[in-house]
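Tokens for chain A. Residues wanted.
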């Protein structure tokens, strides 16, 4: 059992009375009959406290989310104990809001699904601790959820997508390409060898002090870069996409980040401004960075499609590429991927932006998928632990590299 009592918080210690009072606050609806199974999903793996109730057919009955973005923007990044404290302060309210909006009383739930891996240890702990108390009081099955699997399967909530399909997950914490063969059957084709693209965009935005830019002050780093890039000229800077000689599906962003950092320093000297002031060339840098990242991501994804086609791993008549994660809401990157899917006769699908970023719906939906498939439903939660690090599926990235597929050059006219 997890005891998270370093800092005081509503659920810092498992307390039966707290949970009892919480459950009593719901109006019960005797006589109301739900025809479908109902899953409550809880997400706290990073910096969003989120919950949702989803039924077996994919109807979202209620949802709530508390984003910590504004706090972390001010401190220049996520400080895990701060994230943990904010999760503690908000989890009860968020779960309550999601349940109330759904008009489902806790006793009517079929199961509770919660992200337990991968993510920030302190953040995962809050969601798990809260969920285990709820499960214990309600005597409901518990479904542990893999955060990246949940991102990958979200598309099946919004679109009719059959297995297998290819998924590209690009966010602040993750960057991977995987083949999805079933609810819990994944083949990992490639991943970032260092940082994720969202992390890099956040760092560049911070280095450019975009938080001080009147149009970008409340935006995440990636969104600020996308916004500013529209006003810039990508041809003013020539950053080379990383790993051009490596014929695999892995990614890398920290070398490029270093080059950009040096370029910004040089520009500050040229323009005679201090670190912390906004460069007149910030928009051009944003445009060039976004273009270079888009080309890198597109090239690796192109190779993954060709690998899957070569090995007959995707549906012959309708190969599908799903793109999700926070960075997938970037329309420029989506355009680059569209050029790739057009050239390879694939269908490109993206969940709507609010389902691309972290949310409770994707966790509840993953619970529904698991419930329907009869996979990973626990009736005893003894010994259950969160796992900050956890790979996605079986790693075949070495085999992908050994295939050394040459990717034809595409004109990236975006
Ligand atoms: O999936 P997400 O909400 O959280 C995780 O990282 O798991 O993704 C957040 C990341 C941040 O790095 C943010 O800068 C990036 O997604 N992001 C974007 C855009 N909107 C959010 N990156 C590029 N373009 C955007 N429009
Ligand atoms: Zn995520």
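Reply:
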């Amino acid at each position: 059992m997890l005891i998270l009592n370093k800092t005081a918080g509503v659920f810092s210690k498992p307390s039966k009375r707290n949970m009892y009072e919480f459950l009593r606050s719901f109006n019960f609806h005797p006589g109301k009959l739900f025809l479908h199974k109902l899953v409550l999903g809880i997400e706290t793996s990073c910096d969003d406290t989120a919950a949702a109730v989803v039924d077996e057919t994919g109807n979202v009955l209620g949802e709530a989310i508390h984003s910590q973005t504004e706090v972390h923007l001010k401190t220049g990044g996520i400080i895990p104990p701060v994230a943990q404290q904010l999760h503690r302060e908000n989890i009860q309210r968020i779960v309550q809001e999601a349940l109330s909006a759904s008009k489902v009383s806790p006793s009517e739930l079929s199961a509770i699904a919660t992200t337990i891996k991968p993510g920030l240890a302190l953040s995962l702990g809050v969601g798990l601790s809260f969920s285990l108390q709820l499960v214990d009081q309600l005597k409901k099955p518990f479904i542990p959820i893999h955060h990246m699997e949940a991102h990958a399967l979200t598309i099946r909530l919004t679109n009719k997508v059959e297995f297998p399909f290819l998924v590209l997950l690009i966010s602040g914490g993750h960057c991977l390409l995987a083949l999805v063969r079933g609810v819990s059957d994944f083949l990992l084709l490639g991943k970032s060898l260092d940082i994720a693209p969202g992390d890099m965009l956040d760092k560049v935005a911070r280095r450019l002090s975009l938080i001080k830019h009147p149009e970008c002050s409340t935006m995440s780093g990636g969104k600020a870069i996308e916004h500013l890039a529209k006003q810039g000229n990508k041809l003013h800077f020539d950053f080379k996409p990383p790993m051009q000689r490596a014929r695999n599906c892995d990614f890398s962003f920290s070398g490029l980040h270093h080059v950009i950092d040096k370029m910004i320093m040089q520009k500050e000297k040229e323009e005679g401004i201090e670190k912390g002031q906004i460069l007149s060339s910030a928009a051009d840098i944003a445009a060039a960075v976004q273009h270079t990242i888009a080309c890198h991501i597109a090239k690796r994804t192109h190779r993954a499609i060709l690998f899957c086609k070569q090995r007959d791993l995707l549906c012959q008549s309708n190969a599908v590429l799903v793109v999700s994660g926070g960075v997938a809401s970037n329309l420029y990157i989506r355009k680059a991927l569209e050029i790739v899917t057009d050239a390879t006769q694939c269908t490109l699908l993206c969940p709507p932006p609010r389902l691309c970023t972290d949310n409770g719906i994707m966790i509840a939906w993953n619970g529904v998928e698991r419930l329907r498939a009869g996979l990973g439903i626990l009736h005893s939660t003894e010994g259950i632990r969160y796992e900050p690090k956890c790979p996605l599926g079986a790693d075949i990235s070495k085999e992908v590299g050994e295939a050394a597929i040459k990717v034809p050059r595409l004109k990236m006219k975006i």
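DSSP finds 14 helices and eleven strands in the chain. The chain has two domains: 39-159+356-373, 165-354+394-403.
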